[in-house]
Amino acid sequence: LAHGPDPDVCSSDLVRAVRERLIDGMILVSRESQEQEQWLRGQGLPVVTYGASYGMVRSPGHVSVDMEAMTRECIEAFMARGCRSLGVLGARQWHVDIFRSLQPRFGFGIREDWVVASVAREKGLSSRLAGFGREAAMEAMLVSGWSRKHRDRGALPDGLLITNDTVAGGAIPCLARMGIRAGIEMEIATHANRNSPALVEWEAGLILAEFDIDEIVEAVFRGLETLMEGKSLRHPYVAIQPTLRFAPPNAAGSSMEPLPAD
């Protein structure tokens, strides 16, 4: 069950199916509503959740990607490459909150003109996030003073973290067209799904924090099967860890040249 912007209202068909025991277990994707989750659990239904959980009360049987680990490892990679000022394009406000919370530990400067968070909700999220990536990149360049005509490196942070591959798919082509290439004008790190084609055209020079979709699916279904068998979960909360991959500058498919200066 993937719920939308009003997820606390269960459909009549779902309520009937649960009460008549037509459903043996439930997977909740994109966890945004504790009310709906609590109702389902209150019916005695085995439930496993996957998705956002930052700032929410966790229930046993939750699987998520470890956004804090991803952010920390990307910042460490930035620092290892000599980056001292960083920005972030966050698919969620809490992604930006995690980024800010790590600043005292690493001591990097935050370029506020390159800090933008999406307010998109779950309904139509993918298309909205792609648009947000484009809009956020344009907004940051406008505020910082970067343009095709005025390519002042001082307008850019040393590194930019993008917390969602769909956001990256909107932002990176936009940056490239304006003369900002990953690993050349600016280091760029982004969330990615392993073996996904989403960023293959743009991955040259990127720092990719990759999550294994197979690992996520296995964790979700293993947890649900355990609960449906009436057993306790050995690991009630599973945080999938990222693996950093550094794409070479000459990666295939990333041949876009910046547009000429006006």
Ends: how far apart? 49 Å
User: Using DSSP, what is the number of strands?
Assistant: 10
Instruction: Give me the Rg, rounded.
Output: 20 Å
**How much of the polypeptide forms β-strand, as a percent range?**
15-25%
> Which percent range fits the helix content?
25-40%
The largest sheet has its strands arranged as: 5-4-6-7-8-10
The helix/strand order is HEHEEHEHHEHEHEEHEE
Number of separate helices = 8
- Give the uncertain stretches in residue-range form: 2-8, 251-256
Q: Could you say which structural class the secondary elements and strand pairing correspond to?
A: alpha/beta
Largest sheet: 6 strands, mixed
Anisotropy-based shape:
elongated
Q: Mean pLDDT, as a whole number?
A: 86
Structure explained in plain terms:
It is a single chain. The chain is α/β, with parallel strands linked by helices and 262 residues long. The protein is built from eight helices and ten strands. The strands form two sheets. The protein has a six-stranded mixed β-sheet. The protein has a four-stranded parallel β-sheet with strand order 1-2-3-9, with helices on both faces. Helix 2 links the parallel strand 1 and strand 2. Helix 6 runs parallel beside helix 7. The longest helix has 20 residues. It is elongated.
Features:
262 residues; alpha/beta
Write a brief caption for the model.
By secondary structure, the chain is of the alpha/beta class. It contains eight helices and ten strands. The protein has helices spanning 12-19, 34-42, 67-80, 93-101, 103-106, 125-144, 165-177, 213-228, and strands at 26-29, 47-50, 62-65, 85-90, 109-117, 159-162, 187-193, 207-211, 237-240, 243-246.
